[in-house]
Design a protein that fits this description.
heterodimer, A: mainly alpha, Cytochrome Bc1 Complex, Chain D, domain 2, 56% helix, elongated, B: 216 residues, alpha+beta, two-stranded antiparallel ribbon, 5 helices, globular
Chain lengths: 140, 216
């Protein structure tokens, strides 16, 4: 009986160790998601809405996964520098200017970008900070 | 048998007590007030409280038509101050006000009035474009343009909403996000923070209360 208990405890601890061993990327993703959400609330939600629904024709929704994937490498620059051109989202034209957010550090841009591209029905996965940093250095 | 009669009696009693508890709810009055002595038709002196009212106004609306207080006279309306290039509180305010607008769209006794505080850029055609993009069409929600002096005085003295130019602010202007509820006699009956959803919900509840005051 005693042997049986010891065996089951051992087995249980092995399982616990395996479960807690998430890979680094999943932890980073969760980290970015939670920080990104705070930045989103402070800087983006005014116009783009709590659920990324946008505001009439004034601010586009963030639910167009096709647009987000097609413009994957531009997203960081858009977040930081704003937009002053017509964008077609869900087949509709949006002409209003998006303001720049120069106060956002590269890591903030990365976190909010990961949040947006993995919320509101989007699922693009993780983008590390250094990749976003490179994109930001090459903004047009 | 006695039991049945007594239980019915208790039921009736509790219903009477509960229904008598309902009081006619009234909204408060805001702003300055003073007492005025008046003679009624029978010549008896009476003291009456006189509340602060919104004075006559005249502005250009989103269709470049001169619009005056005549359009809101005899109506309950919600007034606010904003500007179209505002990226901070205005989008949230108008997103929330949109839900109020949609709820009272078909009620002819309710109106909405938004004053721009950006006298340099927000000309009527800019306001028109903004209204259309927000999803507002028709005269029920007026977007008004006026000189800096007239709009700012109206905001601060009459609607009790702080507005101002501020070159250090991100968009060049600062203002409070209040949605001010005005009754049919131009008195201020409520002020709700348009950026807070719970206060906007309260506004939706208070408009019917205010309308009911006039139904007697």
């Amino acid at each position: 009986m005693r042997k049986y208990i010891i065996h089951s405890i051992f087995l249980f601890s092995v399982i616990a160790i395996i479960v807690s061993c998430q890979n680094q990327e999943t932890i980073d993703l969760q980290n970015y998601m939670s920080n990104g959400k705070d930045i989103y609330k402070a800087k983006c939600q005014n116009c783009h809405g709590e659920n990324g629904e946008g505001l009439g024709q004034l601010a586009p929704p963030l639910t167009d996964s096709v647009f987000l994937i097609a413009n994957k490498n531009r997203l960081a620059c858009i977040i930081k520098n704003g937009v002053n051109e017509t964008l077609v989202i869900h087949g509709k034209e949006y002409r209003e200017k998006m303001p720049a957010f120069p106060e956002l550090a590269d890591i903030d841009v990365a976190q909010v970008m990961v949040y947006v591209t993995n919320s509101f029905g989007n699922k693009q996965g993780f983008v590390p900070y250094n990749q976003v940093s490179t994109q930001l250095q090459n903004c047009k | 048998m006695n039991k049945i009669i007594s239980s019915i009696a208790i039921c009736m009693l509790s219903i009477t007590i509960l229904s008598s508890c309902q009081q006619d709810k009234k909204l408060p009055f805001y702003g300055e007030r003073h007492a005025e002595t008046k003679r009624d038709t029978a010549g008896i002196e009476k003291i009456d409280t006189v509340y602060q009212t919104i004075p006559n106004w005249s502005f250009l609306n989103q269709d470049s038509v001169v619009t005056t207080n005549k359009s809101t006279d005899g109506k309950v309306y919600v007034a606010d101050f904003f500007f179209t290039s505002c990226t901070t509180i205005c989008p949230t305010m108008h997103r929330n006000l949109m839900t109020v607008y949609n709820e009272f769209k078909t009620n002819p006794d309710v109106m909405f009035v938004s004053h721009t505080i950006d006298f340099k850029y927000d000309r009527p055609y800019v306001l028109k474009k903004y209204a259309q993009k927000l999803g507002v069409d028709g005269p029920k929600w007026q977007f008004l343009y006026g000189s800096k002096d007239s709009v700012y005085t109206l905001a601060e003295k009459n609607y009790l909403v702080a507005v101002g130019e501020d070159s250090t602010a991100k968009d060049g202007y600062i203002h409070q996000g209040y949605l001010v509820l005005i009754d049919k006699d131009r008195r201020i009956r409520g002020a709700y923070d348009g950026t807070k959803e719970d206060q906007v919900e309260q506004l939706k509840k208070d408009i019917p209360v205010l309308l009911a005051e006039y139904k007697k």
